[in-house]
Write a structure and sequence with these properties.
Elements: E1 2-8, E2 25-26, E3 29-30, H1 31-41, E4 46-51, H2 55-61, E5 68-71, H3 82-87, E6 98-103, H4 111-123, E7 128-134, E8 143-146, E9 152-156, H5 163-166, E10 170-179, H6 180-187, H7 203-210, E11 215-219, H8 232-252, E12 256-257, E13 264-265, E14 270-271, E15 276-277, E16 282-284, E17 288-289, E18 294-295, E19 300-302, E20 305-306, E21 311-312, E22 316-318, E23 321-322, E24 327-328, E25 333-334, E26 339-340, E27 345-348, E28 351-353, E29 356-357, E30 362-365, E31 368-370, E32 372-374, E33 379-380, E34 385-387, E35 397-399, E36 404-405, E37 410-412, E38 415-417, E39 422-423, E40 428-429, E41 438-439, H9 451-454
The protein binds uridine-diphosphate-N-acetylglucosamine and calcium ion (CA).
Length: about 450
């Protein structure tokens, strides 16, 4: 069986954070989730995650994932290091297993590279294989030492390296493959006699070499994948690389992204062909965008379903559905629980919350529509307010098909305007409006003739 051990118990000191390092997000998803995903994607049968610092919150977060958690004891006097972390999983390792070790802090590692490593390890009948890459600036990483025949002989940690060793450009990605029986046997031989007083998993390589077990180093060309997150600076670097990766994927599937450097699309988003995305757009969470949509600058869409040919201009949409051929914005806010029908126009500075709006209805300017069910072909004038809150509870307003709500009216919930009901501008409606009626609720106009002159105001 192929199993993976994912190391996520470290303190992440350099992050200077209250949150465990592996729960920090890259493009909207915790770092560790990417690593677990890549491991599962590589068809690894059992995924073991080693947790320690912040372990409870990590376990809680990945509650529903099919992973096995193993706890690494933590505390001022507890042993530390990647080798000690792997030791916590010995009970889970069978003699016949092939064990892949992954770092929980490398979000860019792909399932393809894990598969490549596994294939390389198995095809060459190796006992230990390290995934490596070449870096111009290798500082901070373990360096790969090779013997006279070019075979890997040892990994030297940056902090333990001599000046000469520091010049080595081939680095340890932190991903390895081991024969289960041999790994278990030699984990016992690790010590912490090094610059950091840590048990290094990397020392296994030197030990296997001494014991004459066949070893390999599988070099990958895509250096991006090995970037670990140890600091906030590296977190933003991973974010940048991940963003590029995500944007390229969408472009390769036929989405136009005008300025990929300034477009932020999270990992789980789906976008249809021929949709055009302008700069400053953020698409987050579990969002689906249809085909031929136009998302204009500075739009933010979160956990929403946007159907085909929708145009959104500089607006915010959260947990909502927008049906085909509708337009939203500029500067509209569609709040959670809204369902906007087909060919609807939601215009400037319109806020919609937890409301259903039927096909072909329009609200062009400056309105608040909250807790409402609005029918088809309804016109909602400028400045209309659905008064949904009485200071204690939120109440519903129902507006039938073909109704007309005049500008600057208030619909005080709970209230119903039936089909073809017309509301005169400036009315405050508190009672049901029957089908086909005009409802006027305002003082009738009085014109006082010659008043200005009488007051002596006209010079
Ligand atoms: C490690 C490697 C280094 C490699 C680099 C690649 C060692 C000794 N060094 O260094 O050769 O180039 O990764 O990114 O392995 N962890 C635990 N328990 C611990 C300590 C760490 O679970 O006691 C976890 C961390 O949470 C982290 C991972 O192991 O996810 C790697 O630890 P980290 O301290 O970041 O190792 P590096 O110094 O980056
Ligand atoms: Ca690291």
């Amino acid at each position: 069986m192929d199993i993976s051990i994912i190391l996520a118990a470290g303190q992440g000191t350099r992050m200077k954070s209250k949150l465990p390092k592996v729960l920090h997000k890259v493009c909207g998803k915790p770092i560790l989730e990417y690593v677990i995903g890549a491991s599962k994607g590589a068809k690894i049968d059992k995924n073991i995650v080693i947790v320690g610092h912040g372990g409870d919150s990590i376990k809680e977060h990945f509650d529903s994932q099919p992973v096995v958690f193993k706890e690494q004891p933590v505390g001022a006097n507890a042993p530390y290091g990647t080798g000690f972390a792997v030791m916590q999983a010995v009970d889970e390792i069978g003699d016949e297993d092939t064990v892949v070790i992954l770092c929980g802090d490398t979000p860019l590692m792909t399932e393809d590279s894990i598969k490549t490593l596994l294939d390389y390890h198995k095809k060459n009948n190796l006992y230990g294989t390290v995934l490596t890459t070449l870096l111009d600036d290798a500082s901070g990483y373990g360096r790969i030492k090779r013997d006279g025949n070019g075979n890997i002989s040892k990994i030297v940690e940056d902090k333990d390296a001599t000046d000469l060793e520091k010049e080595i450009k081939e680095i340890n990605s932190g991903v390895y493959c081991f024969n289960g029986k041999i790994l278990k046997m030699f984990l016992k031989r690790l010590d912490n006699n090094n610059a950091q007083n840590e048990y290094y998993i990397t020392d296994i390589i030197g030990i296997l070499k001494e014991e004459d077990y066949s070893l390999g180093a599988c070099l990958i060309e895509n250096q991006d994948e090995i970037h670990g997150v140890n600091s906030r600076e590296q977190l933003s670097f991973s974010e940048k690389l991940m963003k590029e990766r995500i944007n390229k994927t969408h472009m390769s599937k036929g989405v136009t992204i005008i300025d990929p450097d300034n477009t932020y699309i999270e990992e789980d988003v789906n976008i249809g062909r021929d949709t055009i995305i302008y700069p400053g757009t953020h698409i987050e969470g579990n969002t689906r965008i249809g085909e031929d949509c136009i998302l204009r600058g500075n739009t933010r869409i979160l956990d929403s379903d946007i159907k085909n040919r929708v145009e959104i201009k500089s607006s915010v949409i959260e947990n909502s559905t927008i049906e085909e051929d509708s337009t939203v914005g500029p500067n509209a806010h569609i709040r959670p629980g809204s369902h906007i029908g087909k060919c609807v126009k939601i215009g400037n500075f319109v806020e919609v919350k937890n409301s259903y709006i039927g096909d072909n209805s329009k609200s062009g300017h400056l309105a608040y529509i909250g807790d409402a069910k609005v029918g088809k072909n309804v016109n909602i004038g400028c400045g209309v307010i659905f008064v949904n809150y009485n200071g204690k509870e939120k109440l519903q307003t129902i507006v039938g098909d073909n109704a007309f709500i005049g500008s600057n009216s208030n619909l005080v919930a709970p209230v119903k305007v039936n089909d073809w009901g017309y509301i005169a501008a400036g009315s405050t409606i508190t009672k049901e409006v029957e089908e086909g009626s005009l409802s006027v609720e305002r003082a009738s106009q009085t014109n006082i003739k010659g008043w200005v002159e009488k007051k002596g105001l006209k010079k």
